[in-house]
Structures are given as C-alpha cells and as structure tokens.
Amino acid sequence: MKDARFLTTWFLSVVIILVIALFPMLTVADDSPLTEGWTPSVFGQGDEVGSLNWITEPKVLEAIKLVRKGKTVTLGKVYQSDIPVFGERTWKLIIPGLPTGGPASDNSIVYNDEYVMAELGQIGTQFDGLGHIGVNTSQGNYFYNGHFLEDFGTSYGLNKLGVEKIAEKGYVTRGVLLDIAGYRGVERLPVPTGKGKNDPGIITVDDIKGTIKKQKIAPIQPGDVVLFYTGHGNYWGEDWDSLTTEEKNQNKQLFNAGEPGPGITACRYLSEQKIAMVGSDTWGTEAVPGEEVNRAFDCHIEWMVKHGITNMENLDLSQLVKDKVYEFVFVFAPLKMKGATGSPGNPIAIY
Length: 351
Fold this sequence. Notes:
351 residues; alpha+beta; 9-stranded mixed beta sheet
C-alpha cells in the first residue's frame, strides 16, 4: 500500500514538474507567421539569403558613385575580454604558449597562434544571420521563409540559413547613416522607460524622415544598408582602455540596461523600403523596451523572420558622425562559417 502511495505521489510530482516546465512553451506560441502568410518570401520558397537579393549589379554600380574622396573607415569595435556583452556571453583569447611553436628549422623560426572561446557570431560587433531569430508556433520553431528549426537545426550547425550562404555574395551597396542623436540635438538618446510609443528613447518614422531631410540625402532605397547613430554606443567608446575597471563596470551596466532605437512602427517602415540590412551603435539595434513592452525584440522578428532583413549590432559610427558623412559605400561579408547563426566582422565605409 505504501509503495502504491509512493508511486502515485511520485507520478503526480513528475506530472506537476513537467506542466511547470512546459507551461511557458505552451503559452508563448504565436501563429502569426502561419496565419499571416509569411511564406513564401518575395524571393521564392527556397530562398535562404533574404534581403541580400535587393543588392543587384546595377545597385552596386550606383553605390560606387558615392566614393568621392577615397577615404575608408572601419565600423567594427575591438574584440577583447572586458567588453560589454549581452547576458552571459563571453570572449576569451589565449596565446597557448609564448611562442606557441618553435624554434624550428635552420632559421629558428617561431610562431604564435591564438585560441578563442566565444559565442563567435553573437558578441561585439556582430552580424545577425537569418538562422539567429525565430518564432515559436504551434507547428514548431518558425524561421525565415517557413523553415522550421526542428527540420534544419543540429547541435553542430544549421543545415539551412547558415551565414555561409550570405557570405558567398556579401554586401557592397549604399550605406545610409541616420544620426538620430544629432537630429534630436542631444549627445545620446535616452533608454526607453517602457511607457509606450511616445517614449523619447524610441525612434519614430518621423525621426527617420526628418533626419534624412536634415542631412540632405536621398530617401532610403531598396538594397540600402541603414545604420542608426543614437550615441548610446559611447558608453563603450574609443577611450575604453583608458577607463578603470570600476568605470568599465559602470559603463557596462548603463550600456546593457536597455537601449534607444527604432520602435516596431519604424521597423515596419524600414521593411517597406526593402532595405538589405539594418544596424546601429547599440547591442540590439531596436528600442529596448519597445512600443509594446510585453513583446521582446519584435523588430528582430519583423526584420529577420518576416522579411529576411539582416542586422548588425555594436557598430562604431563615430568617425562617420564626425565627418558628417551620411551616404557611403558599405562593404561587409560574414565569415564563411557553415551553419552559423551570425558572424563577427569589421565593416568598411568608403566615401
């Protein structure tokens, strides 16, 4: 009898634990991708590179005309162990021996190698590929163009939507810098407080249009890469190595506490312009919290999952702002890492 009671109690405990564990998964399913016709994309059922398709050969030739001085500026930040990171991500670089090898041969050659431990595609200046973000639906985890993670995901890389597909072509196109901080007349935009779409930390469609008008540049066009300067990235600025450990920790807290950026209304507007990529000087590009505080990273879904628009975060846009350069040739290709969700990188602006 005691054994029967024990087994009953044990069984009920297991059921309760499973219900508690699975309840969040059961309650967060969103079938919008299924009911709103997100598949197939405008590029066809089998497409895996999304908005990169908007960069045509004529688009590249037109972009090259923006080079007038021959000046180049890199837009990536330095990868090192004490940079601000999202969540528990990490970057560690080790030289395994000094030197790693040698001396060898008659000329006594020596050499150094590095060993890196990191979320390689999702730390520092990072490119979000189309395998990075999905939506949990009643039919499974939905990713761009109707690909379900259960069908293409493995622990050793993605069999579809890997960044190597985009890396085969890369981005050479018109880059557009939107200096929203300058347009607003502030050093940096504030972090949103979660009080709705009128929050000053949220970039609006009017901000985008107003900035373009102030900067006296052509409107956003299909195939453009649109980059937002908010000033928030200055918490992780060019003087980083001159800060004390205490100052770095303080800046990390300020940097990661939230971020200004476009709200979902502005994100949808950018999708309508058929841009190739979006990016910013912040760690997530979009406003956090956004217009709807209970919908985390809604713009990531709007861009990557619904429209195949890639995203690049933690860019150093300071030199472009100093030079007041708002149109340029944007050049970038992710590393050819088969099945990866993202890539590190150092984009180049040429003007």
